[in-house]
Design brief:
CATH architecture: Alpha-Beta Complex
CATH class: Alpha Beta
Order of helices and strands: EHEHHEEEHEHEHEEEE
Helix content: 10-25%
Number of helices: 6
Radius of gyration: 15 Å
Pfam families: tRNA_edit
Largest sheet: 5 strands, mixed
Number of strands: 11
Structural class: alpha+beta
CATH superfamily: YbaK/aminoacyl-tRNA synthetase-associated domain
Domain YbaK/aminoacyl-tRNA synthetase-associated: 51-164
Protein name: Cys-tRNA(Pro) deacylase, prolyl-tRNA editing enzyme YbaK/EbsC
GO molecular function, one term: aminoacyl-tRNA deacylase activity
Strand content: 25-35%
Shape: globular
Number of domains: 1
Amino acid sequence: MRAPIGDFDDARPAPDCLDLLVAPVADAVRAWDGDVPAGRLLYVDTDPAIADTAVFVEHHGADLLDTSANCVVVAGKRGGDSTLAACLVLSRTRVDVNGVVRRQLGARKASFASTETATGETGMEYGGITPIGLPAGWPLLVDSAVVDTEWVLIGSGGRRGKLIVPGKTFAGLPGAVVLDGLGTA
């Protein structure tokens, strides 16, 4: 099957590719009960050697500049308490950590989580973290522009491979809160 975005010749339903996904993502796809059927979550194989955005877009299509999203892990701190959350924004934007994220988490201070924390807590590889399969109870802050995008390219949990998902899917993920202005230019 041809992918709905990008230049990928072999897009396959994610439920048919569970062996190619990291455990938490495979588990989430296996137990999927979202409004969008699991078969509409598509897996495409990609080379981790060309994961840098500029090279990736050059290889797989310029339309991916407007249809790909990044998922980052943030830590909000208030007093001695720390809250981990994931943020999903279009790749051409940056997460408003010190404004929208800090306020949404009710934190005094917010920052990007360390690589060790992000990978250790999610069970995913750095550079492939995805909102599908996040730890239970985590807030997932989603920029409204992501939800409004017809098809979105996201990580698959590992450095190899990506998922292409209808944008409206993200509003229904566990812990999802859709926010205007989470991604800034």
